[in-house]
Amino acid sequence: MNVIDQVASDLFSVFLFGSVQGAVFSLLALGFSLVYGVGGVMNLAHGGFYLATMYTFYWCIKVWEQTILMSIIITLIVIVIICILTFVLLIKPLQHTEIGILMATFALAFFFEQLVKVLPWSDNQTHWVPNIIKGNPIELFGINFPVRYLWTIIGAIIVVVIIYIFISKAKLGKSIRAVAQDREAAQLMGINANLIIMVTIIISGLLVAFTTFLYGAGEEVYPSMGWGFLIQSFAIVVLGGMGSIPGSVLGAFIIGYSRTFCSYFIGTQFAEIFPIIIIVFMLVFRPQGLLGKKEVE
Amino acid sequence: MLTKIRQLLSIYKKSIKNFFPSLKAGTKNIIKDLPNQLNNVKMRIFTFKSGLTILCLIILILFPIFPETEYYISILMYAMIFAILAASWDFLVGFVGQISFGHAMFFGISGYSGALLIQNLGISWFASIFLGAIVAIFLGLFIATPCLRLKGPYLALGTQAFALILFNLMLSQKELNITQSFTDLDYILQYFILMGFMIISLSIMLIIVKSKLGTIFKSIRDDQICADASGINTTKYKLIAFIISSFFAGIAGGLYMVKISSVSYGNFLPLYSFYAIIMAAIGGLGTITGAAVGSFIFFIIQEIFSELFSASGGQMEAFANYGPVLVFALFLILVIRFADQGIMKPAVERLKELFDLLMGR
Amino acid sequence: MGMILEVKNLTKKYGGLTAVNDMSFEIMRGEFIGLIGPNGAGKTTLFNVISGFEKPNSGSIRFDGMDITGLKPFRIVNLGISRTFQLVRSFRYLTTLDNVSVACLSQRGKEISNIVGINNYASTLLASVGLIDKARLPPVILPHGDLRRLEIAKALGSNPQLLLLDEPFSGLSHEEAEGIISLINKLREEGLTIFITGHVLRELMNLVPRVIAMVQGKFVIDGPPREVANHKLVLEAYLGRGEGFA
Known about the structure:
The complex is a heterotrimer.
Chain A (H helix, E strand, L loop, with lengths): L2 H37 L6 H18 L4 H27 L3 H21 L8 E2 L9 E3 L2 E3 L1 H23 L1 H11 L1 H6 L4 H24 L3 E2 L3 H16 L4 H21 L2 H18 L12
Antiparallel strand pairs in A: 1-4, 2-3
Helix pairs in contact in A: 1-5, 1-8, 1-9, 1-10, 2-3, 2-4, 2-8, 2-9, 3-8, 5-6, 5-8, 6-8, 9-10, 9-11, 10-11
Chain B lengths: L1 H17 L1 H26 L2 H15 L7 H27 L7 H18 L3 H23 L4 H20 L4 E2 L9 H24 L1 H11 L1 H6 L4 H27 L1 E2 L6 H14 L5 H21 L5 H24 L5 H15 L3
Chain C lengths: L2 E12 L2 E12 L3 E5 L6 H8 L7 E6 L2 E2 L5 H7 L1 E3 L12 H9 L2 H10 L1 H11 L15 H14 L4 E4 L8 H17 L2 E6 L2 H7 L2 E6 L2 E6 L1 H5 L2 H8 L7
Parallel strand pairs in C: 3-8, 3-9, 6-7, 7-8
Antiparallel strand pairs in C: 1-2, 1-4, 4-5, 9-10
């Protein structure tokens, strides 16, 4: 293959795999952004939630290799319980102390990380989650594209669209938007703001769980995986604008493509750092993000 | 210039004349109070809290005398190093209100620079600590400048992001083993040197926060807009705070590097940022000394875990290694939820009550 | 004497809302001026722009001949303009004495405190507002009237030539308001220029010799209280399409 073909092929790879990354990050960042937009809380344990779902799914699959359904159900139950407990025990009581919430959710993330290392059936090593989506890789223009990634992209699009419709049209979704805009006004209209915030956190947990189902099978799990995803989510919502659904998706794909681009053309090391440079740049020059509204102090 | 001073003095004098009644009472009180104030300083040295501090210091100093303590001295040395790190974090967060979740980067960069200097220029371990801390200051300024406008969660995650970048960059670096003479010194001498560093660092930080500079810092923490409205250049003072905090975090990092005689990505572990946070928070934010208390408690508990669980082998060993952080994460959550002053202040107050009771007051 | 504050064609917009619309006026040194307007008229925004907390979209502000448009708040304080806030602000975890000390530690305040000592200066200011006996207390336990006094003491810490008081009477009982009024009068005797806002007219009208009225961001009238009170637009803004105003 001559140079042009190589470059074209690489660019196409970037497009394909970048789309997968974008899809994954959309789901993760969306939950993070929603919780901040609605509840005013930056959930530093968001990466920890992903850790929780991935590990739970992984352990379940090891136990029930035949029926994935059990693994899915259990993971969903676990994350919902975690979300409810996090809200009731941590977030609701600490809502008014900024430092308190940051430190508590930060501590929670560390708690999950260490828990995973300490549990008797687990260890400190990196493991691969078995690939549950069988099938041979598809060949597209000479590039091997694993089937599961197809599911990732399609699934992510479906989920995001469902969430968008839910937030726009459903009664609960409208309540969520009301609380995000003005909590007091919403409460005066009879909306139970605390319940709404808890629901939002549960939604963010479900989104994390779906990421696990659509993407996690076939990926690695290791105790410190939460932090990278937390920072990515933060980078995306800073880029796209806190509390904006289209912004989070846009940001996710921008970062997904940039990371993959960096991986192919510059080096994987840079791919990790790139989103963080974006964070810094955006925070300094345009803290409201590309699509977000300016935060009123 | 002189006329300006005279003008201001005359305005001031006019103010005095016009507010005569309440001022007379006020200044009379203050003057009457003056010998009392001097007495206060004398008395403060003999208060319960100072007595407690002195007692702890005496215990620390006399510790090596007891037999079979060599192993524990090592643990105490690490406790003292991290006490400085935690105190530097408390300085920035508890007194100036700037939340940093990436303090490990100052800790690491100082050790790394110091190690490079030792390896390439052959400087002494003593110099490497200070030079490393100065590098940490530069990193602090570099980080602080974009982060200055950030508040709360943005600042926390911004600093964490920076620290993560640095950590990732270091992952690909080789470990450096350095030969320097600190670890050749007698064990006990090392102990006292570290203790000296800890006492001096904490004392300097305490002096700063109790001074007028400290008052300015606290005003920025309490209400930055109000501080702006009072004519304080908050940007300048936040930078100063970052400089001081990163300097002492750097001192801690240099001491750590010198103690373990090597530097790698392990010096930049995000875990150390977490250490700083839990130690300072559990001891009590906004106290400086609480951070030291938190550090000692952490290492003591870590040692207890180690003794209880590692001998059993197998899975229990994992619990011995990671259990402390697990428990402390939980502990931190509990402290934030139920005892946001940390445990040092309430504990000291309880002890004082007990003491008073015993003394028959 | 001379002009101490000159505001020219000042405009401040928030998206589609124009909070301050082409305001122009002058204040002479030593004057005592009120700024009135119903809630939402833009009075606090105007103060925010003058004191540097917001940047205007257009227009200029000159203080003592110097252009201060767009300067940062602390710089404006150190040039000689201090302000108080509509919702009282204080440093929660500092004593009242330290609350005042902060302003005394500003660049301008240090010109005095370096000579006479911070504690002396702060104590004097605290005494001058009648709070010296509460010097070591935290602000949270002070009643509202004392908090307003504390705010004024803090504002004086930077030795201002012009004092902007934003609704200093709101939330005060009659006696507390009287206390603030006598405090203001003392400051007036000093020669301090005071620019005071309010939306309750009675206190202001009896207090100041000159009033500027603002309605919906726009300048309406500038003159003695009686004249302003009888102006058509002012009456409409406060009373709807009403009749006389006592």
